[in-house]
Amino acid sequence: MNYSRPLDFEKDYLDLKFKLEELREYAVRKDLDLSAEIEALESRMNTLKEERYRHLKAWQKYQLARHQDRPLTLEYIKAIFDDFIELHGDRCYGDDPAIVGGLAWLDDIPVTVLGHQKGKDTPQNIHRNFGMAHPEGYRKACRLMRQAEKFKRPLICFVDTPGAYPGTGAEERGQGWAIAETLAQMVSLRIPTLSLVIGEGGSGGALALGAADRVLMLSYAVYSVISPQGCASILWNDASRSEEMAENLKMTAPDLLALGIIDEIVPEPLDGAHRDPEAVFRAVGERIRFHLRDLMQQDVLSRLERRYTRLREIGYYAD
Amino acid sequence: MLKDVLGLKSRTRYATLPPRPSPSVPDENRCPQCGGMIPAGNEGRLMVCPECGYHFPLGAWERISLITDEDSFVEFDAGVSSTDPLKFPGYDAKLIQSQELSGLNEAVVTGRASIKGVETVLGVMDSRFMMGSMGSVVGEKIARAFEAARKCRLPVVMFTASGGARMQEGMLSLLQMAKTSAAVKRFSNEGLLYISVLTHPTTGGVTASFATLADIIMAEPGATVGFAGARVIEQTIRQKLPSGFQKSEFLLEHGMVDLVVPRSELKDILHRLLKLHQGRRP
């Protein structure tokens, strides 16, 4: 069990959880019967857990979604699919490590898998550019989408990025163009498509892998048009009010389900996906199988029609 | 050709359009680039500085009167207007303020018009309305314009000007990128022509969706067009950006646009492109 890097609001709970484990170990080591003490501590811990996590604020979910220990795309791929073969490059400029993609088996179905890839530590994050893709990342995604369509493989995308990279090279090579092309490509694919927001869904750079037949989201993942910090500094000229802004942006899974942006929430452990990744991989794998089975039964034209209608109906206005 | 364009700009033709309170240029018509004066009268209607060629931002209706044939424009969906779905602080007031300032209902005007006799569906964004940002209404009107053009088998011409997705509608705004892209793609799959004209400024979610999905992409001279804003890039790379960065000419050099076209020549080149796609020599 991992207790590293606690967030402010979960410190006392994690301390208690750690103490409980120490006590259990101690009881075993000394061969003592401490079951009454353990039970009391356990019930205190469970109460505290409920109190700390049951009603999380948007900002707290945002912190959990970006937690350093949170499982990342390649871990999901490894746990859920078999025999993953990563494919590289956009055939044009380079290979972007901030987006990974390749081929794998889901049970007995060949599939194409894509996803933003962050790093687990600083060197990895530097290599992955913190999951912020350049145009070549989106062009690689586009290429693998077309390839999936050619071979009639379902497409599964994992979304986890702070956003598309805002840099000079990215602009020179057409960041906006690459995202637009990926979006237009993804909405018109004749294969079943599924997207899962597993961590941070940051703006257009996230959406580029999110225009699927169905979009699922982990319960503490966030998905937003702009970061709360960015929004607070633009609209209020005050980045210190990010917490308040996180609430306004309606970026949490329940908010987005209510707005019709996503189709389903995949529950994660109360204290976050990183506290029990195996349970999360099982849950996500089960939902992927469920939705793909369903989507694969639909004929191409009605699937395309539903995908179009799903997007077409998003938005609120007076007419 | 230039005479035709200028000829469109007499006061009487102007008066056929709905009234709007404020022009996009300050009273003194002073060029922000060189400090020179824009002469009043016909020539000034182009809103291009005669000294240095600076292109002033143009309001949606000014643009429509400049590009379309007299009395040919029929607006679509004029009544579609924004609500405040997220109850976002200050959004209601901002909408009202923008409506008063621009005389527009929203940041895009769409409709049907002829350009030197060629029927087209037209969309014109206006940066005075909340920076031309795209929320539910802008996305809906753009999608409907492409759907109407698909049904009537007409070409589409879009003039873009936008700071990106509208933050005050959160993810509803972001998804308009996917919605408009889907509508463009459907339209495009029918073999129909889409021309976009990127005007100052076109950034963020509009650049990363329908603006750059056109068959032919043009830009007005000196327009800032990109994905990320210059300030964000400077903060990220901790360097000052060179002066021409993200300008139309920079995009042309990097292969991102087909043409950079001065405002005075826009109507003519649009007409030639539309005619060519009809297969009829003008």
Give structural notes.
The complex is a heterodimer of chains A (319) and B (282). Chain A has helices spanning 11-30, 35-53, 58-65, 73-80, 122-128, 135-150, 168-172, 175-187, 203-207, 228-235, 242-248, 253-258, 277-297, 300-312, and strands at residues 82-86, 99-106, 109-116, 155-161, 193-202, 214-218, 222-224, 264-266, 317-318. With 319 residues, chain A is α/β, with parallel strands linked by helices. Chain A has 2 domains: 8-55; 62-312, 2-enoyl-CoA Hydratase, Chain A, domain 1. In chain A, strands 1, 2, 3, 4, 5, 6, 7 and 8 form an 8-stranded mixed β-sheet that branches. In chain A, strand 2 and strand 3 form a beta hairpin. The longest helix of chain A has 21 residues, at 277-297. Chain A is globular. Chain B has 282 residues and is an alpha/beta fold. Chain B has a single domain (57-278), classed as 2-enoyl-CoA Hydratase, Chain A, domain 1. Chain B contains 10 helices and 8 strands. Chain B has helices at residues 2-7, 11-14, 60-67, 91-102, 136-152, 170-188, 204-207, 230-237, 248-253, 263-278, and strands at residues 74-76, 81-82, 108-115, 118-125, 156-162, 194-202, 216-219, 259-260. In chain B, strands 1-3-4-5-6-7-8 form a 7-stranded mixed β-sheet, with helices on both faces. Chains A and B meet through helix 7, helix 8, helix 9, helix 10 and helix 14 of A and strand 2, helix 5, helix 6, helix 7 and helix 8 of B.
Task: Label the structural class of chain A.
Answer: alpha/beta
How many β strands of chain B by DSSP? 8
Strand order of the largest sheet of chain B: 1-3-4-5-6-7-8
The radius of gyration of chain A is 21 Å
Main β sheet profile of chain B: 7 strands, mixed
Count of the domains of chain A: 2
The tally of beta strands of chain A, per DSSP, is 9
Shape of chain A: globular
